[in-house]
Amino acid sequence: MDDVKVDMSGDMNVPKTEPKSQFDFSTFTQFQKIPSPMELVQLTRKYIRPWSEFLNTGNFKAAASMPRLTSRFVRNLDYFKSNYIFVFIVLMIYCLITSPLILIVLAGVAYASNKIRKAQAPVSVFGHQLSPAHQIMALNIASVPVLFLVGAGSALFWTLGASCFVISLHAIFYNIDAIVTEDTEGFLAEVV
């Protein structure tokens, strides 16, 4: 075999980069991919299953074994996920209606956020300019202790607990095999 020589000499300029901080705060308020609450509701409504099917008492049966129960639980969570989101929303609305102080604080924060958003005027605090997005963020952070004082923490955990309980009961006892077979499950997911 002949020896082959390849010339690999040359100059390479490596561009200098500034060390970046761990977290870039300038992009913190620029979440573009988070949908608005109305878009979330519309997306959830698009994939909701019929309520007559969801509440059909003829399909509630105990599972024969533990593996079938876990399979049923996972399949029900996947099949009825939009219905379960609406169950959570209804329980949250019920909790807000029965806790008027929380409702008053949330309405005040929403009103103040709307006023800040419409004004579009930067505010100077201790020599620093705060954009409207930063003002709204500061308002939301300042409202957390007030919400805690009026009982929003207990209301939130009550809603989460009640939702998990109701959704788990439905997902455990609803016989998904009565309406969906393994063969048609993929087809139904594509059609919807």
UniProtKB/TrEMBL annotation:
It is found in: Cytoplasmic vesicle, Secretory vesicle, Synaptic vesicle; Membrane. Pfam families: PRA1 (PF03208). It is a multi-pass membrane protein. GO terms for cellular component: Golgi apparatus; membrane; synaptic vesicle. Its main location: cytoplasm. Keywords: Membrane, Transmembrane, Transmembrane helix. InterPro entries: Prenylated_rab_accept_PRA1. The chain crosses the membrane at residues 84-112, 156-176. Belongs to the PRA1 family. PANTHER family: PRENYLATED RAB ACCEPTOR 1-RELATED, PRENYLATED RAB ACCEPTOR PROTEIN 1. This is PRA1 family protein. It comes from Musca domestica (House fly). The gene is 101888339.
